[in-house]
Request: fold
Amino acid sequence: MEIIKRPDNMERITTAELAKAFIEEQIGAIRQQVGNKKVLLALSGGVDSSVVAALLIKAIGKQLVCVHVNHGLMRKGESEQVIEVFGKELDANLIYIDATDRFLDLLAGVAEPEKKRKIIGNEFIKVFDEEARKLEGIEFLAQGTIYPDILESDGVKAHHNVGGLPEEMQFELVEPVKLLYKDEVRVVGEALGLPHTMVYRQPFPGPGLGVRCLGAITRDRLHALREADAILREEFDNCGLAEKVWQYFIAVPDMKSVGVRDGKRYEGWPAIIRAVNTTDAMSATIEEIPYAVLHRISDRITAEVDGINRVLYDLTKKPVGTIEWE
Ligand code: XMP
Reply:
């Protein structure tokens, strides 16, 4: 098995000029590999798959078929951004599947984290597979594999359909950013004209809000989590923390406490803020959010989000706490 290695003399892509040269080179390589055949891509809206999509659209236009599966566990506005950017602005061949009900029905009553993850992962493959089977003449599968993925798996991952397609659906892989580091993928994404918010998006786990809506997911608590998380992100954008903090989000546990609202007893869930800095996600420190910002976030969430009556700030480093609550 061939081990893919970044050439020692490959220059780090740090400028728009270098990115443009890379894009031109890849357009040629993609056209040569694909010819007039069709390519399928699972487009999550994350940095890597978005950059690969934009690159392929530039190279082969409508020969690329993007499938965006909304599992109902996306953050507020994320699927909408995929539709706006790829479906409208870049005029991509985009299939949008709202599979929210399928996922949430399967997850109903399931509290155990590993079971939840398994359900989400398996169902994702199933939905994507069903869509792929409906399409005709697809010979290639594009993937947003990046160089750290290859390093972490000793070159093995690139040889598998890690998007999760079954073995019998054999496609040749198209992996145009497989030799790039994350920072280079971002520079290329900006040179391709993708929105800054998409290219500099914080890491977001595959199971999405499913790992942050703790215990058995209910639609009302998931909704509260999504709204509270959107407020946190908006406030971080407003005060410049979004550019500085590595990962920040809200988790909502499956428990209620007593509160008071409009002079009446009001039972609600707590929203837990997590805001961490790290380089490799193996260990993480806590961002010192200014108290004024914390107060504003707390006031807004308790006033604007139905079902939330407290806001807590998690001060636990990793280790001993993991970044996600699960
Ligand atoms: P933990 O919670 O283990 O998280 O400290 C470390 C980092 O990994 C992210 N994470 C995931 N990323 N798929 C992903 O792509 C996943 O299933 C997944 N689970 C956790 C987490 O958000 C954090 O950045």
Q: What stands out?
A: The first strand starts at residue 38 and ends at 42. The longest helix spans residues 113-134. The pocket of xanthosine-5'-monophosphate is lined by residues 203, 205-207, 247, 281, 318, 322-324 (CB under 6 Å).
